[in-house]
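Journal club prep — side note

Before the paper discussion, L.F. wants everyone to see what a predicted structure for a comparable chain looks like in token form. Sequence:
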Amino acid sequence: MNSHQKYLRYTWFLLVMVFLVIIAGGVVRMTQSGMGCPDWPRCFGRWIPPTDASQLPPDFEKYLGKQDIDHSFNAYHTWIEYINRLLGALLGVFIFIHFIWSFVRFRKTNKAIVWLSFLLLVTVGFQGWLGKKVVDHNLAVVKVTTHMLVALVIAAIPIIIIYRLEKWERKADTWLKNISVAALVIILAQIVLGTQVREQIDEISKSLDYQQREVWISQLDNLFLVHRSFSWLVLAACLAIVWKARPYTAFKKITWLILSMVGLTLIFGLIMMWGNIPAWAQPTHLLLACILILAVFTLRLRLK
């Protein structure tokens, strides 16, 4: 394997790591562990979080007291949140290595790759800062939504780098290009709506002490109806892409991925609606939506 292939493989590895961090974030939300570490970057004032209440600092109430959460210590929630942070920190380290590698390899031959890698590094740094703000403001909805959108940007940048280096086959199709742009806007809006519905679910579940799942959806406002209705637009846009891309064999794999992801995303949305929002379905639904929008983004890159 030559150095070019190694660099590409490492960039693919970064993309996989981004998805792992997104999954970890979904598990944090699924288990209501978002405030398991009520301070940042430490956890209860420690670099290694406690495993037992006896290990809490004498002034631990100052951490829990400023947050709108249960004041009892829960090691399960603490370590889920801490592992999520560790994965994010590892991703930052791997991206820093990627930037150094990009600078050394492409600073004279392909400066665009260097700038993209630098942008990736800056964006991850911003995401870390935003994570601190999410904690400081007790998972405020606007910051949670922004956190999700920044994660999508972080995932999109490695795809652009790979696209530039692998020289994927491109096609000229104005209609398909316009449809893919429209689909990106629709899916992005749907993801934003979904994060806001999720925030409402968090508030409702918390008010009911995380019991009575069967009534959570009935207490949502019209935002949920908009989110549910928007799913038909997402489906229509993706079906239009698949239909319009039929003549291009080069797009066969990516269109099948789009079709699979939109179908599975809808299925898991129905599972949550009819199954009283099972916890395991939430991060899966989010992950599928992220793969879907990035698949459409990849297709758009390949259109002249």
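L.F.'s comment for the group: The chain has two domains: 1-167, 170-304. Keep this in mind when we get to the figures.
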